[in-house]
Amino acid sequence: MTTNNSSFANTNRSVGNLMAPNGQASSNSNENNNNSNNEEDQLNRINLQTLQNRDPYISKIVDQAQRVCVYKFVAEKREWERKDLEGTLFVYERLCKPYHGFAILSTVSRETFVQIIKSSMEFKHTPAYEAFLQYKVDVGDIYGIWFISKTDCPRVTECLK
Length: 161
Prior knowledge:
Blueprint lengths: L4 H12 L11 H27 L3 E17 L4 E16 L5 E7 L5 E5 L5 E4 L6 E5 L5 E6 L4 H9 L1
Antiparallel strand pairs: 1-2, 1-7, 2-3, 3-4, 5-6, 6-7
Helix pairs in contact: 1-2
């Protein structure tokens, strides 16, 4: 899961400016940085292990978005159908071909959505829909991923291309 580093940085700056009773600057900011880094490293290891349980060839998490929802385009109805998939999206590297993929670990169902990225896939992010990524797989199915954070969508889209 993604942590907002800017809020940690702001908190650490204000804590780091506190003075100890002896008049010297407190070292709390370094301790807080180390604690948050250790927690983040541990969380990253847990997330990687969880993904590797589904695909043992995953070697590294490249990027992630904290909260997304998956939709599938139903051509007959000409509408988007929301899937029972909502959770954290992880973009990852693999040790063998195909070398990239992404997965969504759902928090609303037991299902994990795994998509290996192939050169035949098409990704489309339209600025008019800031938080929506559309992509087409080689069998013709069209999916959409809605990002709760508008800033995650363009960044993850670039990662997937």
